[in-house]
Specification:
The protein is an alpha/beta fold and 380 residues long. Helices cover 32% and strands 26% of the residues. The protein has helices at residues 2-7, 65-72, 128-132, 147-165, 184-196, 210-222, 256-266, 292-295, 298-319, 351-363, 369-376, and strands at residues 13-21, 31-39, 42-51, 54-61, 76-83, 87-93, 96-102, 173-178, 201-207, 228-232, 246-250, 271-275, 322-328, 339-345. A 7-stranded antiparallel beta sheet has the order 4-3-2-1-5-6-7, covered by helices on one side. A 7-stranded mixed beta sheet has the order 10-9-8-11-12-14-13, with helices on both faces. α7 packs parallel to α11 and α9 (298-319) packs antiparallel against α10 (351-363). It is globular and about 65 Å long.
Length: 380
């Protein structure tokens, strides 16, 4: 079992939570939380045993981590490993581990010093679109003032990588980017799929600003990025005759995200990825007397409204048959708009999920725009 556990630890670790006491096992601890920390430039781990309101700590080195988790499996049945590359949800019964792989959902604050981080795009490589857009110099160095943009691009590609890997490989991919703006990420997506993965793709970027669209089309032509085009138009009125594999929306404001979701479903998109931006719909609507200590303060009400908005979006997508993950897009020090919603089409209508959506919606006395549009387009 130790070797099996080690296979899930071959990455930088943000957090590990072991829980689910086995039936018939007597233990005073309800769960164990494992966190990395630096000690004399070496990564070690602190085990925190929870006992009611008390905790007991134990420090171990990296080589002992798998062995300690194996011992904990004698007491507990579940283990969630939050890693830099993947999250793993493990269940152990009868000495066998069943695992589920998820997209990474936590930032690793501590990384090893003997392992260089490998991005999808790396400094030192000659990346034509980064040079053209001024993110990288001609001698392949990242411009200091553009380093945050470089990291954002790589985080974006990291988010998309597993999604792209799940799409068909026997034909060109069809992707739409709603609200592409200056299209740093659209060009990055094209470069990654075509230049790195060696796949063929038809990618369309959509934006309202004509000068931006003209510029992006010029960049695509100058770089000889065939099958990458940019069109002027808004999300709601955008139409196409072909189905789409994936729709992406980065920082589409307010209900533009909802319109993008509606259009994605109309296009039979298998994957929807959205990083919502400003969200004002629920601020004047939200009402729940028991939450007045929160709702009486504007800044807290605003943040709660945004979280409720994305929670309802995720839940209604689950109700219409998508497998939905909500995760951090990039650290809040770079942008406060950092929640990403990834939805992968898996099944048909889910009544239980829809009932939960309605109960949650009614708890806040809300009339969501996305639900109204789903009804108008016969999605619900």
């Amino acid at each position: 079992m130790k070797e099996r556990i080690l296979s899930f630890l071959n990455q930088n670790i943000a957090l590990i939570v072991v829980s689910g006491v086995r039936k018939g096992v007597q233990t005073e601890f309800s769960k164990v939380t494992i966190k990395p920390f630096l000690s004399k430039e070496e990564v070690k781990y602190q085990l925190e045993y929870t006992k009611g309101k008390q905790v007991v700590h134990k420090n171990i080195d990296k080589d002992s981590l798998a062995e300690n988790i194996e011992e904990l499996f004698e007491i507990f049945t579940q283990c969630v490993i939050y890693g830099e590359e993947n999250d793993y949800h493990l269940n152990c019964f009868n000495g066998k581990i069943k695992s589920k792989t998820m997209a990474p959902s936590k930032q690793c604050k501590i990384t090893t010093h003997n392992k260089k981080k490998e991005y999808a795009l790396n400094e030192g490589d000659e990346i034509d679109f980064l040079i053209y857009l001024g993110v990288m110099t001609k001698d392949r160095k990242i411009v200091k003032s553009k380093y945050n943009k470089f990291r954002q691009i790589n985080k974006y590609l990291e988010l998309l990588k597993s999604s792209i890997d799940s799409l068909p490989t026997d034909r060109p991919l069809k992707i739409v980017d709603f609200g592409c703006g200056k299209a740093y990420l659209t060009f990055a997506l094209y470069y990654y799929i075509v230049k790195i993965l060696g796949r063929e793709a038809f990618i369309t970027g959509l934006d309202l600003k004509e000068d931006v669209i003209d510029y992006c089309n010029k960049v695509a032509k100058d770089l000889n990025y065939t099958n990458l085009e940019f069109q002027k138009g808004d999300i709601k009125n955008y139409s196409r005759t072909q189905d789409v594999d994936m729709v992406i929306m980065l920082h589409a404001c307010d209900n533009a995200t909802d319109e993008g979701v509606v259009q994605s479903i109309k296009f039979n998109a298998k994957i929807i990825i959205a990083v919502p931006c400003c969200q004002h719909e629920f601020f004047p609507q939200i009402k729940n007397d028991s939450l007045n200590p929160m709702l009486n303060h504007g800044i807290i009400k605003e943040r709660l409204s945004a979280l409720v908005t994305d929670s309802l979006r995720a839940q209604i997508l689950t109700a219409v048959g998508f497998d939905v993950s909500v995760m951090e897009f990039i650290e809040t020090e770079h942008t406060p708009k950092n929640i990403a919603i990834r939805a992968v089409k898996k099944s048909g209508f889910n009544k239980k999920a829809f009932d939960e959506y309605k109960a949650f919606r009614d708890n806040f006395n809300l009339k969501p725009y996305i639900e109204r549009r789903f009804i108008e387009e016969n999605i619900l």
